[in-house]
Structures are given as C-alpha cells and as structure tokens.
Amino acid sequence: MKKEELTELLQRVAHQQVTIKEALAQINDQGFLDLNYAKVDTNRLQRTGAPEVVYGEGKTAEQIIGIVQAMLVQKNNIMVTRVTAEKATLVRQAIPQLKYVAVAKMLLYKMHSVQPVSGKIAVVTAGTSDQKIAEEAAVTAEMYGNQVIRVYDVGVAGIHRLFAKLEIIRAAQVVIVVAGMEGALASVVGGLVSSPIIAVPTSVGYGTAFNGVTALLTMLNSCSTGITVVNIDNGFGAGYSASKINHLQEESNENSLS
C-alpha cells in the first residue's frame, strides 16, 4: 500500500468510517477486502483494466455505503448500478460526493478523468419506454471515456424515424440497440450499418413479451450479421462491452500511426 493510501486509510479509521479490522485487512491486502457481507475486489483494475462496479439491487443502503467507502481508498472511479431514488438518498447522506442519475438508477463518483476516446458509441432505442436501460448503457460508456450519441424512439412501428437518423448512427464505431416488445429493431439496424452491434432486450411489453424473453429470442435468432446480445435489461453490460470494443479500435488506430 502506498504511503498516501495508508495515510488516508488511517484518517478514515480516526473518523470511524472504517473499522480497525477493515483497515488491517486493507493493509494486508490479498486482492480483496472482506466486509463480511461483501468481498470488495481491490485489484480488478490491475487484472481487467477497469475497477469493480457495485450492483446495488438487493443490497441495503448501509451495505452500499460500506462497500463504496472501502473502494474510495483505492482512488478509483465509482459506479453503483440499479439504485432506487430512496436508497440513493440514504447513501448520499453518508457519501455526498456521489452523484445520482435518476433515469439510469446509478450512483457515480468520478475521482479522476478518463482519457477520452475519439470513436463514438451510438445508443439507439425502439421506444421511450426503453430509455432507462439505454441510459444505463450510455452513462456506463461515458464513465469509461466514450462519446455517446443518443438516438431514442426510432422503433420499427415508425421506421422512417430511424432512416432520418441513419447517418448519425453509421458514424459510430459501435452501436447499442435497446428494444423491448418483439425486439425487431436490432435486426433492422444490423442490416443497415457496418459497425458491430450490441443488442439489449428489455422487459418492456405486453403479456407475450414475457418480460423480455420474446425480444431476447428475436435478437438471438437475428439473420443480420455482427450482432451480439446481452442479457435482458443489461444496459450496464452493453455499455461496458461497447467501451471495450471502442477502446480496442482506438488502440489499433494509435498503433497504425506509430
């Protein structure tokens, strides 16, 4: 542990933000910090290039507070997904530097800036009802330094809306398509653009949409090439994967110039 990290840790102990037991565990870091209710991965950044992200659903506000406080010592950017407004209010009372993005249901803290990527990611939705999942994807991508183009409510029921934005979408290095109901938009976009597409089925829809299963099966069975499908409502996973692809393209461009 670096001197400045140890100093900050001791200050947190003095302010009763971290227990002595938790502090000792961090000093004797074995790659994770055991909080009893959670094991915080302290070297994921070194292994994967991105720090741990906290999945907030199913965790209490107190548990999220404890996990985030432990992560703050690592001086990494913080992302907590699937957090209700009520839970976010409680968490921010303890950690006010966290920003809550209500539409995406995410708590964020950018401790340091991320090197921006020149390539853009387009996030395209079939309907306005898909926006909360799309925003989870968009905000995630932005946290990793990507420029995001939002193209919302261009589903196949009014396909002329999609054609009006087609050149904007084609300019993106990666396209995320978010759709519920029958999930047809991913196949349509897949037949119109050359960029890789990440399809996100959402749980939006009436009875036989089966909470996103119908859209998922449509996307998995798409005859359009170049489509990768993530889990139902997994905006975070789509944003993260799109960022990885976009960064690889950036590295490829830099290597070709060197």
TrEMBL record:
InterPro entries, alphabetized: P2CMN_synthase_LarB (IPR039476), PurE_dom (IPR000031)
SUPFAM superfamilies hit by this protein: N5-CAIR mutase (phosphoribosylaminoimidazole carboxylase, PurE)
Superkingdom classification of source: Bacteria
GO biological process: 'de novo' IMP biosynthetic process
SMART domains in the record: AIRC
Matching PANTHER family: PHOSPHORIBOSYLAMINOIMIDAZOLE CARBOXYLASE-RELATED, SLL1489 PROTEIN
UniProt name for this protein: PurE domain-containing protein
Lineage: Bacteria, Bacillati, Bacillota, Bacilli, Lactobacillales
